[in-house]
Amino acid sequence: MKKKSRVHQELEAELQKMRFYPLRSLLVWQKGEFIFEYDAYGKNDHVLHEAQSTSKSIQTLLLGAIQKEGYLKDLDQKIAPFFKEYNYLDWSNAKADITLRHLITMQAGLDWNEGRVSYNLIYENHSNLLSESDNWIEFALNRPMLHPPGKGFQYSSAAPIMLSKVIKEATQKTNKYWLEKCLFTPLGIEFYEVATCPHEPEVLGDLEICPRDLLKIGQLVLQKGMWEGKELVPAAWIDYISAPILKIDALRSYGAMWWRGKPPLTFYEMVYAWGIGGQHIFLLPEFEAVVVTMGRFYEIDFDLTAFHLLNQWVLPLLKKS
Length: 321
Fold this sequence. Notes:
Blueprint: H1 6-14, E1 23-30, E2 33-39, E3 49-50, H2 54-68, H3 100-104, H4 126-132, H5 136-141, H6 158-171, H7 175-187, E4 192-196, E5 204-209, H8 211-222, E6 226-227, E7 230-231, H9 235-241, E8 246-247, E9 252-254, E10 259-261, E11 270-275, E12 279-284, E13 289-295, H10 305-314
Antiparallel strand pairs: 1-2, 1-13, 3-5, 4-5, 6-7, 8-9, 9-10, 10-11, 11-12, 12-13
Helix pairs in contact: 2-6, 2-7
């Protein structure tokens, strides 16, 4: 740990204020070392925390690792053949044309309101309704088509869940098997939990993970898929998922379950994973830095607190190469 600067000391004092009480962890890692560490449960805990939609970003890393194993290399293959037991559903209006690429770039075309309706509206937000259903896959595939695949962006937590099913069918091994073999065991991630579909327990939802292990995910991406001299995920895949594939607004683009651009309230371009409530991985290649926040900023007034923390207090800690 570097000697504490004035900014470092001011940040420590700032985190004691009431508005930051939902913060679980703030980790700032630069050039091979921690330059700031805060965890409400201490440095060496094994207390899990909900990852929320940063789980999506981990899922696409897993897909790249599985491709390295020889599976699912064609992103333009249609997903319908992997869902044969759901042939009784309505696959018209180009639903049968959804591809793997459409799933991971949020362009499946299914009518899904998650990006438009607050999660606080429990019985209206489609993501909430999916999680409360007995069969997540059926709920997702039963949604009507809003537009043809590839013709629009609809943020959807159903996408990684359907990807989970595709992985199982394509490899005949569970997602948990691949997570541990390709990512978690090499990264030394031992403690985690994952939500599973009641109808099909091998279909995975969001993760619970320790903050320091989430930081390892960020380090892996910053290092172009390399970990301790071994390639876990091909560098070309890292480049693809973090590229600005779809322009969302003037400041942000979407890759394949990773964001790119300037997050709210910030001034630097970065690649980042975004989970509701303050679950974030921020990658700043020009600083050779990874920043992780985890918290419970679920009230509407707290929604952007982690981004304010990043811009106001964390970025001044970093020094360019």
